[in-house]
Amino acid sequence: MNIIQIFTDFSKSCSQMPFFLLSEAEQKSQIEKLQQAGFYLQKKMDVLLKNDTKTSQAVNHLLLALNQDQLDEYNLAQALESIYEVICNTNLFSHERDFAEFKKYSDIFRQRAFHHKIRSEKINKKCKLLSPEDRLAYDQKILKEKLIFYVVEYTLQVGKEFKHIDQEQKMMFLDEGLKVESGNLPGLRTFMQSYQEEAVYSVCEENERNQLLKIFLELQEILNGDNLDDITNALDEFNLKLLKIALKYDITHFSGLILKPYPDDTLIQDIIKELS
Q1: In the chain, N or C: fewer CB atoms in 10 Å?
Q2: Are 77 and 112 contained in the same domain?
Q3: What is the tens place of the pLDDT at every residue in 155-175?
């Protein structure tokens, strides 16, 4: 059993997409693999390093983190960091290259999990002070101001531009932006990374917040590649999903603050039909 590869594969899969957004089947599979690796490590270390308290604590930390009803990503990331520190200086497992990859992705995983934890705690603390009615009104206002005006106004315009500009212009659009008739549009990759924060971590309702995060991360995954057809289709799908969330919050008309991909007061339902 290559336990270093198991730890690396898990950290890699959770370095971008949070564990709680993976499919149930994938979550179950990942936990089972980590538990097997943990028990294997525990057995091997008990035989070879019987009196090593630090090793025992690290393995117990991992197994306890995996045995929670609701897995705490940041706690698990810390457990994997402890595992790395314990075994990286031994010659019991794998090769140096494997350790380097494990370290690389476990660091990314820990940083992302910590960021999500802090941002989530901040908005939860703020929303805890609001009544259910006020939370609903707050989310509706936030979704209109930060989702529609910040994001969808831009991504709808980008989607329209992508339908008629050439391949070279599309590639330029991804990182550098493009000057079009409607104005100067910033680079798509940079914009989405920046405004994901404002659109996602400002919403009170946790399930909606997680759904928004998943929608943004799925688009980001496509944007990390260079398949322009996939990016064009992903933009339409991204806009569809966000507009449907807007409808859930009784935001029925689209109006742009700066960009005008559609005339002001266009019915969102009509835009959905056009994109579908």
Answers
A1: C
A2: yes
A3: 999 998 888 888 988 998 898
CA 155 to chain centre: 18
Q: Are residues 116 and 147 in the same domain?
A: no
User: Do 115 and 138 reside in the same domain of the chain?
Assistant: no
Q: Range of 25's domain?
A: 3-121
Closest CA to 247 of 152, 163, 181, 178: 152
CA 103, CA 88: separation in Å to the nearest integer? 9
Q: Which residue has the tokens 């802090």?
A: 118
Residue with tokens 């595992």: 83
Are 202 and 97 in a shared domain? no
* Residue 198's pLDDT band (cuts 50, 70, 90): confident
Residues 216 and 104 in one domain: no
By the 10 Å C-beta count (0-12 exposed, 13-18 middle, 19+ buried), 273 is classed as exposed
Give, for 199, the enclosing helix (H) or strand (E): helix 188-200
Q: Which two tokens stand for residue 163?
A: 């339908």
* Distance separating alpha carbons of residues 93 and 99, to the nearest angstrom: 9
- Taking only the tens place, the pLDDT of each residue in 21-43 is 999 999 999 999 999 999 988 88
